[in-house]
Amino acid sequence: MVNRGARLIPLLALLVWLVTGREAHAIYDLSATRESAGRIPVGILGVTGAAGADNQVLEVNQVLMADLRRSALFHARDLGMRMAEPPEEALGPLQLREIAGSEAVEVMLWVRLEREGARWVLTGHIYDGARGRLTLGKRFVGKEDQLRQMVHRFVGELIYQFTGEYGITRSRIAFVSDLSGSKEIYVMEHDGGAPTRVTADRGISLTPSLSPDAEKVLYASQKSGRWVIYERELASGKSMVSLSAAGLNVAPDWNPQGDGYAVTASLDGNREIYHVVKGRKIRRLTHSSADDVSPAWSPDGQQIAFTSDQAGSPQIYVMGAKGGPARRLTFRGRYNSEPDWSPRGGLIAYTCQDGGFFHVCVMDAGGGNPRQLTAGSWDDETPTFSPDGRHIAFSSSRGGKRDIYMMDLDGGGAERLTFNGANNTNPSWAGPTGR
Amino acid sequence: MKGIWMLSAAALFVVVTGCSSKKQVSTLDGMGSGQAVTGAIEESGMMTEELDESLVGSSVREAEMGGASGAQSAGPADLVAARMGDIHFDFDQSVIRDQDKPILMGNAQELKANPNLKFAIEGHCDERGTTAYNLALGERRATATRRYLMALGVSPDQVTTVSYGEERPLCTDADEACWSQNRRAHVTAAR
Questions:
Q1: Tens digits of per-residue pLDDT, A327-340?
Q2: Cα–Cα nearest to A197, from A224, A212, A167, A219
Q3: Which of A136, A171, A241 to mutate to test binding with chain B, by most B CBs within 10 Å of its CB?
Q4: Which residues in chain B have Cβ-Cβ distances shorter than 8 Å to A148?
Q5: Element holding B21 (H helix, E strand)
Q6: Any idea which fold B76-189 has?
Q7: ipTM
Q8: Do A264 and B51 touch (CB under 8 A)?
Q9: Quick one: pLDDT band at residue B81, thresholds 50, 70, 90?
Q10: In terms of DSSP H, where are the helices of B60-130?
């Protein structure tokens, strides 16, 4: 298991670079823009495959271009060369340099798809345009339904070269879907690929929280007649009751270490925030006569944001991780709920109300600079940051039914991720970003 | 069902080949990644860890048995529950409205006339608002209703509460006429 605290150190170092503006080799400006401006120009030398693999090549190409666009780091375009041979062998460094220069690209990619028995081999090469040299070549081997994952891994390697992290390429989104007729927990790849049902509880399952390593999910289920927190390992399917206190047990949120979680429970009467530590101890954190719900950890584990109606309407508050006095963060509007803290700190996203509709808002973690990211005559709810802090997923009824979407931090670039024809809600996005 | 999303659950099996500069092979088919690709929705029913204290306890299998809500014939409590009326709430409120108090008085009489039958008060919300907050609000409505019934002399042992949040609407139009029906407390036979 990856320790999130240990991962933070290189991230913080990276942030310091960015904030201070100090130049460092291979560190680029990470400010997110959807257009090509500010992005690293990438040229595609070819995405080709063996005979009879046209459909697979098409899919690989689509996933590759989408991953590069979604990275918010690269602006990729096909150089129209359709190279089937390894470019460093077919062309050599001088010619590769020349191509990079005339096409004004800093990086070039080449992908080849071959069949090897029943398995597929995706070979991905990364070239440094300025030197015309191969900087990374990697073969990914797997089954046909793993081709998307291979592309994600390859793009992760490219992102790693520039940022020292894998970005969102290894992350997943847990969510609730009523596809089977009852609300169950599902998990999918960060881009909506491979949606898979996790539970078969046939009751109502809600408020999933995906662990920092994306290997476990906590959720609330009413299948026993009461709301109980369950923990499930995704790989093994092992499941256990995690919290079954008297009353309501809902809306868990894994702590950054992944060894416990904050949760909404009512064992002491009204709805309060508790911390379940390593599945053994339960510690009460709030002591108001109001309802305190929807806890969200800060990435350093020092603070917890939550929703409370102690002022007469649901608003976002923040307190220390061990409880104590809470400070109100939201003052605009009569309904602010479901906070989620950016993994890079700095920002809290939440569900706000605009007219009769709910939308995604974001504010500085101290409560300043609140702004609404989505607008329209529909509801957008339950924002969840990507593990690299560059995107926000949320559920939206803009298409009629509710579906999971993702967008950039400025509210642009919205992209629909679920297409199963059912209602999809309560997204929780997590996954390792480092090695 | 193939759980290819399981892939990232397993560590990549990376072999650095010696042939060329920085060339690597990653195996994605579960070799070297152990239990990677297992059926994700299989119900193992296994308990992996035992927690202490009364908060915790039953294995998933037990919980699932308790949760079976199949077709059951109507018992005496169902017949009594069917005679009890729903009460309704204002948006984001759990205060018992004056016009609903006679309904609760009638319900209290039914409950007191059947002291050996057990009931559950369901708290419901309209679709507006967020999932967790509405689960809390539904519980608040159910407990406010239960408290009112207790003040009318109903035994606390006779009624429990359960919140359905916004999960069980009576009607699904997006207007106040519909929303106001959904913001309700409803009595059923205890499961």
A1: 999 999 999 999 99
A2: A219
A3: A241
A4: 4
A5: none
A6: 60s Ribosomal Protein L30; Chain: A; (3.30.1330)
A7: 0.86
A8: no
A9: very high
A10: 60-67, 76-82, 101-113
